[in-house]
């Protein structure tokens, strides 16, 4: 199955500002305690509308309005899933309330959870925030593991475990995930004397992110004028560190990022890439990064499945067929979310049914076909809509197979409550300062650590 061009990414049909908000929601976002914003306003309030109070539907059941709070574009409305559910359940009316950016959405969600009011019947939670809620506030959520129709064995084990609390309660059902590959320019590889067949390219760095940097050195030695091997070192760091089970926290919850093998190895690889002049020194999602796609100034980018649509849009039709996708050196994940049902929901039973249905394999596969949101359901990965998917823009790459294989090999990551603060500062205060400002790796590391320590002490 070839994904239609309008479905190459969840936000493909959205305005530019909304698209940027969506892609940024998949990056680590700062968790700052802020006052509730007007954007979330009354839209997140749960419960029935006044018109529903004594009304009954054609199936004889009392009418219920379910509110769904999300950030960015989840695609349920765009893919027609809400409409389908309402047809199957005439007594249900669904109202989605979307906030563009998770950095606005999540602090407000925390405040509403603390107050025990103002919550939607279903609340989406980003992967970088799910551990904090599962660790500190598990009792605020319905245990979805006990919900009728939920099939634990139908989820990728590592995704299921991300939402599990210490007492065994599972506070959310997985929606999408972000298995990683490496997107590369075939024309630039050819000019640098490297193979262009995706299987041969994958073999160049199979099993070790250090081999990816080795290939970068080979490319740099014969690089076409005005090009670099990779966009920036933060993408390399993110891909490498995400391929380890333990990075910032140990299994017992101890903060270990300063001496973590994952962090130090990934940091050293990023520094090697910068010092070897293999990077374009670009910050992802900035204007210059977008222009780099359009102008073909870098040959590779570490790309989760959801990034393909973004690349297609920014690189444009003039570069169609030049980009391809190969397997990443090691399986890793970037992004993904969950649907939760707060205990304070006024329509818990109906909300659980809707959340269960939206995250079932058939709906996940349909959402992938329509919006390119890669499924977290292992059963969905076997359905033709996913397993047979190709991407015409990326030289008809078999993206269903490439990303499914990656998804099955992703380690069960040990998540911690401050993962996003650590990751953001190591990238922005650390790596980018070496890359863009010429700071020494030692000074940049120390500056990032200080920033992290100060943030964790607050």
Largest sheet: 8 strands, mixed
Q: Provide the β-strand percentage band.
A: 5-15%
Structural class of the helix and strand makeup? alpha/beta
Query: How helix-rich are the residues, as a percent range?
Result: 40-55%
Number of helices: 19
How many domains make up the 3D coordinates?
2
Overall 3D form: globular
Secondary-structure element order, as H and E? HEHEHEHHEHHHEHHHEHEEHHHHHHH
Radius of gyration: 22 Å
InterPro entries: Bact_solute-bd_prot1, SBP
Protein name: Extracellular solute-binding protein
Pfam family, one: SBP_bac_8
Question: Features of this protein?
Answer:
458 residues, alpha/beta, D-Maltodextrin-Binding Protein, domain 2, eight-stranded mixed sheet, 19 helices, 12% strand
Task: Tell me what you see in this structure.
This is Extracellular solute-binding protein. InterPro entries: Bact_solute-bd_prot1 (IPR050490), SBP (IPR006059). It comes from Streptomyces alkaliterrae. There is one protein chain. This protein is α/β, with parallel strands linked by helices. It has two domains: 5-177 and 335-387, 3-Layer(aba) Sandwich (D-Maltodextrin-Binding Protein, domain 2), CATH 3.40.190; 179-333 and 413-457, Periplasmic binding protein-like II (D-Maltodextrin-Binding Protein, domain 2, 3-Layer(aba) Sandwich). It is 42% helix and 12% strand. It has 19 helices and eight strands. The chain has helices at 16-26, 81-88, 102-115, 127-136, 157-162, 186-191, 198-205, 209-221, 233-241, 261-275, 287-295, 308-315, 348-358, 361-371, 378-381, 384-387, 399-409, 419-437, 441-457; strands at residues 64-71, 92-99, 122-126, 173-185, 228-230, 298-304, 323-327, 333-340. Strands 1, 2, 3, 4, 5, 6, 7 and 8 form an eight-stranded mixed β-sheet that branches. Strand 1, helix 2 (81-88) and strand 2 form a beta-alpha-beta unit. The longest helix has 19 residues, at 419-437. The protein is globular and about 70 Å long. The protein starts with 15 loop residues before the first helix and ends with a helix.
């Amino acid at each position: 199955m070839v994904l239609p061009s309008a479905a190459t990414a969840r936000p493909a049909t959205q305005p530019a500002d909304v698209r940027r908000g969506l892609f940024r929601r998949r990056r680590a976002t700062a968790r700052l305690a802020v006052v509730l914003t007007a954007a979330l306003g009354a839209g997140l309030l749960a419960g029935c509308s006044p018109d529903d109070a004594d009304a009954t539907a054609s199936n004889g059941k009392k009418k219920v309005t379910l509110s769904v709070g999300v950030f960015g574009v989840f695609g349920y409305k765009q893919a027609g899933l809400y409409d389908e559910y309402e047809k199957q359940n005439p007594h249900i009316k669904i109202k989605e309330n979307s906030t563009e950016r998770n950095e606005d959405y999540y602090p407000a969600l925390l405040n509403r959870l603390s107050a025990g009011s103002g919550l939607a019947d279903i609340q989406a939670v980003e992967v970088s925030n799910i551990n904090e809620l599962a660790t500190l506030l598990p009792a605020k959520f319905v245990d979805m593991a006990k919900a009728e129709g939920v099939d634990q064995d139908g989820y990728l084990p590592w995704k299921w475990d991300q939402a599990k609390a210490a007492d065994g309660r599972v506070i959310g059902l997985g929606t999408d995930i972000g298995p990683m590959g490496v997107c590369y320019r075939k024309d630039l590889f050819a000019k640098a004397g490297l193979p262009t067949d995706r299987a041969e390219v994958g073999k160049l760095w199979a099993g070790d992110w250090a081999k990816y940097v080795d290939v970068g050195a080979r490319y740099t030695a014969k690089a076409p004028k005005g090009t670099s091997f990779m966009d920036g070192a933060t993408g390399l760091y993110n891909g490498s560190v995400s391929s380890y089970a333990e990075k910032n926290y140990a299994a017992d919850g101890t903060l270990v990022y300063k001496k973590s093998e994952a962090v130090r190895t990934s940091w050293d690889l990023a520094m090697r890439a910068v010092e070897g002049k293999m990077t374009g020194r670009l910050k992802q999602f900035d204007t210059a990064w977008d222009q780099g796609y359009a102008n073909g100034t870098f040959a590779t980018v570490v790309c989760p499945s959801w990034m393909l649509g973004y690349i297609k849009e920014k690189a444009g039709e003039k570069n169609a067929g030049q980009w391809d996708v190969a397997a990443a050196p090691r399986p890793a994940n970037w992004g993904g979310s969950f649907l939760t049902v707060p205990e304070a929901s006024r329509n818990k039973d109906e909300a659980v049914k809707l959340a269960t249905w939206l995250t079932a394999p058939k709906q996940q596969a349909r959402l992938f076909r329509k919006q390119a949101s890669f499924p977290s359901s292992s059963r969905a990965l076997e359905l033709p809509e996913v397993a047979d998917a190709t991407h015409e823009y990326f030289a008809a790459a078999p993206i269903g197979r490439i990303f499914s294989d990656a998804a099955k090999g992703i380690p069960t990551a040990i998540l911690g409550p401050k993962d996003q603060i650590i990751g953001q500062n190591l990238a922005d205060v650390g790596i980018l300062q070496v890359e863009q400002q010429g700071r020494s790796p030692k000074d940049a590391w120390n500056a990032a650590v200080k920033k992290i320590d100060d943030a964790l002490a607050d």
